Amino acid sequence: MSRLQVVSGKGGTGKTTVAAALALALASRGRRTLLVEVEGRQGIAQVFETEPLPYEERRIAAAPGGGEVYALAIDPELALLDYLQMFYKLGGAGRALKKLGAIDFATTIAPGLRDVLLTGKACEAVRRKDKKGRYAYDHVVMDAPPTGRVTRFLNVNDEVAGLAKVGPIHHQAQAVMGVLKSPQTEVHLVTLLEEMPVQETVDGIAELRGAGLPVGRVAVNMVRPALLGDAALRTALQSPSHTAVAKALSTAGLGGARRGGKAERLVDPLLEQAGEYAERHTLERAQRSVLTGLGLPLHELPLLTEGMDLAGVYELSALLREQGVGATA
Amino acid sequence: MSLEPANPLAVDPLLDDPETRIVVCCGSGGVGKTTTAAALGLRAAERGRRVVVLTIDPARRLAQSMGIDSLDNVPRQVPGIEGKGELHAMMLDMKRTFDEIVEAHADPERARAILENPFYQSLSAGFAGTQEYMAMEKLGQLRATDAWDLIVVDTPPSRSALDFLDAPKRLGSFLDGKLIRLLMAPAKVGGRAGMKFLNAGMSMMTGVLGKLLGGQLLRDVQTFVAAMDSMFGGFRTRADATFQLLQAPGTAFLVVAAPERDALREAAYFVERLGAEKMPLAGLVLNRVHSSGAAQLSAEQALAAAENLDGGGIVDQPPGKAGLVGNSAPEAATDRATSSGPGSPADQDGVRADTAAGAEQEKDADEEVPVPVEELTAGLLRLHAERMRLLAREQRTRDRFTARHPEVPVAEVPALPGDVHDLAGLRAIGTYLAEAGTGPADET
Ligand SMILES: Nc1ncnc2c1ncn2[C@@H]1O[C@H](COP(=O)(O)OP(=O)(O)OP(=O)(O)O)[C@@H](O)[C@H]1O
Ligand SMILES: [Mg+2]
Fold first, then answer.
1. Ligand 2 centre from A126 Cα, in Å?
2. Domain count of chain A?
3. Residues annotated as region Disordered (chain B) (predicted)?
């Protein structure tokens, strides 16, 4: 899999959770990954149940088989200061700029500038090598902005082209695009089996492709288990014999099957629930077929009904591995 | 079973009260704010009021059904309303709203300079908080025209419901901020004492930014700032004015949440914040609540019974295939029926080549092989067990909220299996919303 894994998707579909699970999955078997977040929301710290992350790469989790996950919450202001420091050796003047609000100003009023700094930092981590010439990280996983904004976020070159036509930011943007538009990068989208997120996924893929950004996989998250097989579902919908079901319920120990009996009174509500299940099932099936039609590799991750916690993230990462993620370097 | 809330929200009296002029639907993303806003608007209109609904990012089909899928940033009358009221609806175009502010406050030449400025363009399209600010702005505009007796507003999707209250001020202070003024005219702001430092800071900053971005960028900023001169101060003031509108007695907030941990936690924060801001909270709309007509049967009982049927050991009657399904069950297909039961490959890989809708499959005579009644019944029981677990989880999260805020009235809307995308669906939601407040608890 590519060295830079960008995870996007509609808001609330599980981008951060899936990005964390992916970073864990890719770190298995002794590898090292870096999980970066770019929106200053401390989502990674929440998922890993730790203190808020500083602007600094630090080890955040161990992966099965001796691997390690590092995490970095990129702060655009600090990234700009770093950057200025690197080019202009500002010293104390950098702090003065910050105090004046200039850094805040520059990164706020020019979102393109902010994005270049954020993606630039991630790309730097992708390219970084140690003294022996080995990559510092096997993979960098980015918890990216949602589908509606991700293309603009990644397409920094276009974004800053109108703003900075020359100068170091311009060069940085071009270097970043070199990584983002290459096979070194894959952009994945997380979705649910619902109409809006699926539509957003379809639109998002078209937009990413239109901008020449490499689309990777689709992860369907929070998938509910199939509780009723197709044949049983069909039978339930064909108005099955009320008495036969009542008898079966009675045989199973749920009371009398005669009219008005305990078991008999369950029949209608149970069939009604099956009808509701069928309706949802049909909708989900339609959405799934839209997703299959995209022709991209599809992963499915179950809804963890007891709520998500760190153990749940490990569970999802194990499932991703079972589905082939991280099998080959 | 759906438990009646102890403190039901009386929706109709709220909508009917001529004193109610603004209803704000807020809550974290994905909980059904837009649908709730549209359903409330429709109900109020059909009860005789002249209503406008301001939606933000509505689902495509919902927008189409209301005739507001074209973005022109003005309310359109929705056809098909029953009764003598009127429903108008619009969907917010944040960039257009921003452009309109500029056009309204600057002479044409200056306005054009602003609108064409690359900074303005990235700010109006992408600044975090712009959408919230523009939603507030639009609300203020709608209210100012006094053309409607009720305005129902949806709020932008965000992780935190509080963003709606905080973002406009952030953008306002940013636009009216010290630095922007400084860039424009350093001498005006600094005062004598600050002058030297500020000027030194300024020239250093312009120097560095100029080098970094290429001098043209900075010139763009300065042009932009100069062109916006007439509007500074205005943003903050406008944001404050709308904020006050929200505190006025004619405004009612409804917090929308799904019965899930995160959404209800956000709802609780929001309730507390509204209290602190002295903003009038009408109640909580709990959306997508599950219920069961067979709640007397617990999840454990259902699963135990399903296992009994699986084992088949206690079944002393012949497998009840014949006569199970009313309409023609082909007797011949016995063995195929067993090979397509739950657990067979066909069922487990959800992604099948033929993903035709279930309805079509029903018509396929060859596929119409009923499963044995025991298998069907066991399936129904498992489905029920899952439903009961879901109910219990929802009940727990709901209890946690009520314990924290027993004073907040609640209306519940059941989880409907499909999407709501037409007036009939919205009307049904409206009925559910209103039912909470008319139950027995309310009449005593
Ligand atoms: N498979 C799952 N099963 C159960 N809960 C899940 C699952 N995936 C995510 N969640 C939960 O759903 C919520 C949203 O997930 P998450 O924060 O990862 O989404 P996001 O797409 O990053 O959201 P945002 O757009 O706000 O950044 C969280 O409470 C998370 O714990
Ligand atoms: Mg997130």
1. 21
2. 2
3. 314-372
Chain A residues with CB-CB distance to B359 below 8 A: 282
- ipTM, two decimals, is 0.83
Q: Give the whole-angstrom CA distance, residue B443 versus residue B437.
A: 9
Which of A299-303, B127-131, B165-169, B322-326 is predicted least confidently? B322-326
Are residues A154 and A250 part of one domain?
Answer: no
pTM: 0.80
**Burial of residue B44, with CB atoms counted within 10 A of its CB: 0-12 exposed, 13-18 middle, 19 or more buried:** buried
- What is the residue type of B147? A
B212:A41 CB<8 A: no
Ligand number with the minimum distance to the CA of B158: 1
Q: Is the CB of A16 under 6 A from ligand 1?
A: yes
| Model confidence pLDDT, tens digit, residues B253-264 | 999 999 988 889
d(CA B10, CA B319) in angstroms, rounded, equals 52
Out of A96, A252, A273, closest to residue B305 by CB: A252
Same domain for A151 and A71: yes
- Ligand 1 pocket member A112 (CB < 6 A): no
Domain topology for B11-293+398-435: Rossmann fold (3.40.50)
Residue B207, C-beta contacts closer than 8 angstroms, at least 6 positions apart = none
| Chain B nearest C-alpha distance from A292 (Å) | 7
Beta bridge partners of A185: A4
Residue B17, SS3? coil
Residues A64, A116: one domain? yes
pLDDT given at position B362: 42
**Do the chains contact at A229 and B341, CB–CB below 8 Å?**
yes
- Based on the fold, state whether residues A132 and A203 are members of the same structural domain: yes
Asked if residue A39 has pLDDT above 60, the reply is: yes
Structural domain for A167, as ranges: 4-224+303-322
What are the pLDDT digits (tens) for A113-157?
778 888 999 999 999 999 999 999 999 999 999 998 899 899 987
Task: Clarify whether residues A143 and A236 are in a common domain.
Answer: no
Higher pLDDT, A152 or A78: A152
Q: What distance lies between CA A144 and its chain's CA centroid?
A: 8
- Per cent of chain B over pLDDT 90 is 38
Shared domain check, A187 and A101: yes
User: CB A231 to CB B371 under 8 A?
Assistant: yes
